[in-house]
Amino acid sequence: MELDERITLAARIESARMRAGLSQAQLARRMGIERQSVQQWENGETAPRQSRLTKLAQVLGVNAQWLLTGEPGGQIEDVELGILSFEERKLLKLFRQLPMEQQMLLQSIALTMRRQLELLQQAEQGAGDRKYPQRPRIVHDNGGKRDKD
Hints:
By secondary structure, the chain is an all-alpha fold. It has a domain at 3-76: 434 Repressor (Amino-terminal Domain). Helix content is 66%, strand content 0%. The chain has helices at 3-19, 24-31, 35-43, 50-60, 64-69, 78-82, 86-97, 100-129. Helix 2 crosses helix 3. It is elongated, with a radius of gyration of 26 Å. The N and C termini lie far apart (86 Å).
């Protein structure tokens, strides 16, 4: 990565970190690295390894492609944030302050709850479609013998 690319990457990392409301130390903790590494990224002295870039983008709430290239559409725009309610913005800020492991756990819990709700709604719709509940069909095993008529 050339010097010019590192400087603009550095500016994007710093900008995204500040928008996320994180200090360098907080970002470092969430990334599982030393604060000096974040400082070096933001000063343009070094760049994050490819293996860390995806996690960095997740922690900062931006698109990894935006971090690398600065192409628009990778960040949550202020306009989009404006349509969130006060409670949603507060939850988003709290979520971003959680360590990555807790964010992933919270996402897993939310997805599980959403799936359970979908299954419940499907079951309720299915029950409403039938006038009479279906009775289970009982099949008797007579050991392969034919019934006598």
